[in-house]
Amino acid sequence: MNLVGYLTQYPEGIAGERGVCFNYILAANGIFVEAKSPVITARIPAADCEIRGLAPLEPKVTLTYGSIPERFWDLALDMFLANPEIEQYCAVIGAAGYHFYVPQQEKTEASVIYRMGTGVVLDLHSHGHMLSGFSSKDNGDDQGLKLYGVVGSLHEVPVVKFRVGVYGYFMELRWKNIFSGTIAGALEEYEDEEVKKGDLYS
Q1: Lesser CB count within 10 Å: N end or C end of the chain?
Q2: How far apart, in whole angstroms, are the C-alpha atoms of residue 143 and residue 145?
Q3: Residue 132 main-chain phi, psi, to 5 deg
Q4: 25/109 same-domain check
Q5: Is the pLDDT of residue 21 over 90?
Q6: Which pLDDT score is estimated for 197?
C-alpha cells in the first residue's frame, strides 16, 4: 500500500486505492485531501476547480471525542491573559477524553518554543499584543493533522482564529466547529474585518 492514495468521487461512489497517510480525492468541485488519526478525521479542499462527470464532495471534520468542552478554552485564555505581553502555548490532547496540556516552553514577545505532545487535537498559541492571525512561520510549523488556534490583541478584546490543518493544507474554522458552549472573553474577527467564510458546519 502506498503512503498517499489517489481516489475519484464518481456519481456511483468513490474509487481508487487509499493511502496509509492521507488521500487526495478528485471530485466535481475540486481536489480534496483527507486524513485520519486516532483523535481527528478531516477532509478539506486542496484545490478549487470544476471537473465534469464527477460527484461533488463537502468538507468534513470529525473529532473522535466530540466537541471540546468550553472549559478548555477558558483555561487557555486565562493563561494567555496572565502574561499578555509574551507568546505562550498550550494544547488539548485526546486520550480517553480530553486533557489540557502545558509543556515547558521558552517564551518571548515574538516567539514561543515548546516540546510537542502526543495525541494533540488542538494547538493554541498567543500573539501577545500583536494581531491575531496565522503567520508564515505558523504555516511552516503547522504541518500536522490537527486543529490550530491563535489568539492576539491581548491588550484589548482578544481575537481568536481557528483552522484545521491536514499536512500543510488548511481550512478556516469557527468556534462552534470545535467547542461546545458559547465563546466568552474573545471575538472571532475584528470590527473592520470582512468575514469571507461563513459557518462551515451545522
Answers
A1: C
A2: 7
A3: -80, 135
A4: no
A5: yes
A6: 39
Average pLDDT over all residues of the chain:
92
What's the CA angle centered on 195, arms 39 and 77, to 5 degrees?
50
Residues in Cβ contact with 179 at an 8 Å cutoff, skipping those fewer than 6 apart = 67, 68, 69, 70, 72, 73
> Are both 59 and 87 inside the same structural domain?
no
Residue 21 CA to residue 35 CA, distance in Å, equals: 7
Bridge partners, residue 91, by sequence: 101, 123
Element containing residue 8 per DSSP (H, E): strand 4-10
Q: How confident is the model at residue 114 (pLDDT cuts 50, 70, 90)?
A: confident
C-alpha–C-alpha distance, residues 111 and 109, integer Å:
6
Domain that includes residue 85, residue range: 70-177
Pair 93, 13 in one domain? no
Indicate which CATH number applies to the domain containing 124. 3.40.140.10
**Higher pLDDT pick, 201 / 14:** 14
pLDDT band of 157, cuts 50, 70, 90: very high
Order across the sheet with 120-126: list the strands. 98-101, 89-94, 120-126, 145-152, 159-166, 169-173
